[in-house]
Amino acid sequence: MSLEKIQHLEAQIQELRKEITSLRKEAPLQEVKDYTLRNSQGIPVLLSTLFNDKDELIVIHNMGKGCRYCTMWADGFRGIQEILSDRVPWVLSSPDEPEVLNEFSSSRGWNFNMVSIAGTDFAYDLGFEKREEGKRSYLPGVSAFVKKDGKIFRASYDSFGPGDLYNPVWHFIDLLPKGVDGWVPKYEYQLSNPSH
After folding, report:
1. I need a surface site. Which of 109, 121, 164, 196 has the fewest CB within 10 A?
2. b/e for 107-133, b at 16 or more Cβ within 10 A?
3. What CATH class is the domain 29-174?
4. Which residue numbers in the chain have pLDDT < 50?
5. Which residues does 56 contact at the CB level (< 8 Å), separation at least 6?
6. Tens digit of each residue's pLDDT (9 = 90 or more) over 87-111
7. CB of 140 closer than 8 Å to CB of 161
8. What CA–CA distance (Å, rounded) separates 188 from 72?
9. Domain layout of the chain by residue ranges
């Protein structure tokens, strides 16, 4: 395959991304209720309060402590939290109970805003939870919300997974001749080149 073909395909992908972004902005808003969630200290918080004094909000749908993929995504948010927070309030939601969320986030060095959705229909209503035979399973992703006329609406959403646009690790690995080559995210890493 020629470099020209790769460059042509990359240009097409960029144009398609612009089209998707435009279509998302034209999509109808989905009204949602003002869910009662809990912060990492177990204190109830309304979804509406997470907007602070803004009219937009981003919620990350994390699968919780048991998912090392979601843990890698959340680890990556440490590097963008101040930049993203300058534009919009955002929060990571987890199905873990607040005490588990608090302990795990402390062990990871996460100091961004987090809420527990345990015992709520928040993820289910938004399509990030499946219920089969009495069991709940969660899906990772992100939702963007807007407040208008005293109501909350979901404006758009997207899913997370290897190769998505929200975690650059996969894109770097894809540049390698062997690609992923059996690698999976871990809870702990050792630097192979600890030079400063």
Report:
1. 196
2. eeebebbbbbbbebebbeebebbeeee
3. alpha beta
4. none
5. 88, 89, 144, 145, 146, 147, 155
6. 999 999 999 999 999 999 999 999 9
7. yes
8. 10
9. 29-174
